[in-house]
Structures are given as structure tokens and as C-alpha cells.
Design brief:
- The chain contains four helices and 13 strands.
- The protein has about 180 residues and is of the alpha+beta class.
- The longest helix is centred in the N-terminal third of the chain and has 15 residues.
């Protein structure tokens, strides 16, 4: 990943990140420096928290809206969420999907998460929410994804329920400063 730009964040941007992580995940970050890194070869931005890539900006789900001419338009906004490193350093209290040992190798390789591999999920997850995916044996976080369905409907016998966005071993996971 080639760094395009790197700059310190203003206080209001830091407050936005900290509030989003506290509200969505129950994670409190307290750091001295926050730097946003943009890449040439990726549409994802990362925030270095005290030098570590702990926060990822993920494009929000496109929402349809009508513009002033009545034409359909889409609006999508980036939202801050933990990277896999961030989730392991600051384990989320909410928005977690737990997979069994049989799913670990697939999820670690970037596969979407299927119902049969899930053993537990936060019931407050809603379709479209970003989630942190961990494994049941050691509690390590393996991936970040977007839920396709609500938390009460995640565990089951068949079907894809979480789309993988970032996982152990991908370019972002391997990124170092």
C-alpha cells in the first residue's frame, strides 16, 4: 500500500472517531496522536492512533435519495471503525460476531461469514452495521465486516450473513508505518 498523504487530525475529527467507537462498540480510545493516512492504491483510509493502524474509515452503505430534480441519487458516507489490530488492542463490547474453529481459516482468508460457522452474535446488530468478527477459542479478532441481517437472525443453518471488508493477512493488516 503506497501512502498518498499523512496528516494529523483536528480535534473535531478526533472527537468524531472517539464518539463513534464509544457509541457503536463500547470502546474508549485515549491517545496522544491521531494521524489519517490515505493511500494511492486503495479507497480506504486508516487512522494511526499513537502510531498504530487502529481505525479504518469504511464507506457507509449507499442510501438512495432524491435530489432537487427528483432524480435518484446515492449518498454514502465513510464511518470510522476498528481495524483487526484495533479490535485486538481494544476489544469491542458490542457489534461482535463470534465464529467457531471450523470457520477460522475461511474468515482469516477473507471469506464472507456464513450462518453455520457462527456460534454467537450481539442481538443489537442491525442489517448494514459494521461488525467485528472473532473466534471462540481464544477470543482473537479475525476480520471486520458488514452485517447483512440483524443479530437475532445471524445464527442458523445456511446463508451468508456478514460481508468481509478487512481481515487478518490482507494489505491493510500487513501495513506498517
Amino acid at each position: 500500500m503506497n501512502v498518498k498523504s499523512r496528516h494529523h487530525l483536528r480535534a473535531d475529527a478526533i472527537d468524531e472517531i472517539e464518539a463513534a467507537l464509544a457509541s457503536n462498540l463500547g470502546v474508549e480510545l485515549d491517545a496522544d496522536t491521531y494521524e489519517r493516512v490515505e493511500f494511492d492504491d486503495s479507497d480506504r483510509d486508516v487512522v494511526l492512533v499513537d502510531g498504530d493502524p487502529l481505525v479504518l474509515y469504511v464507506d457507509g452503505e449507499a442510501r438512495s435519495a432524491s435530489n432537487e430534480n427528483g432524480d435518484a441519487a446515492t449518498d454514502s458516507e465513510s464511518e470510522p471503525f476498528l481495524t483487526v489490530h484495533g479490535a485486538n488492542a481494544h476489544p469491542p463490547e458490542r457489534g461482535v460476531v463470534t465464529v467457531d474453529a471450523g470457520a477460522v481459516s475461511f474468515v482469516s482468508d477473507g471469506a464472507d461469514v456464513m450462518r453455520p460457522g457462527i456460534v454467537e452474535a450481539d442481538e443489537n446488530i442491525e442489517a448494514g452495521d459494521l461488525v467485528a468478527i472473532n473466534e471462540e477459542s481464544h477470543g482473537k479478532f479475525l476480520a471486520i465486516g458488514r452485517a447483512r441481517t440483524g443479530g437475532e437472525d445471524v445464527v442458523g443453518d445456511s446463508g451468508k450473513v456478514v460481508d468481509s471488508i478487512h481481515h487478518v493477512g490482507d494489505d491493510l493488516f500487513e501495513f506498517t508505518v
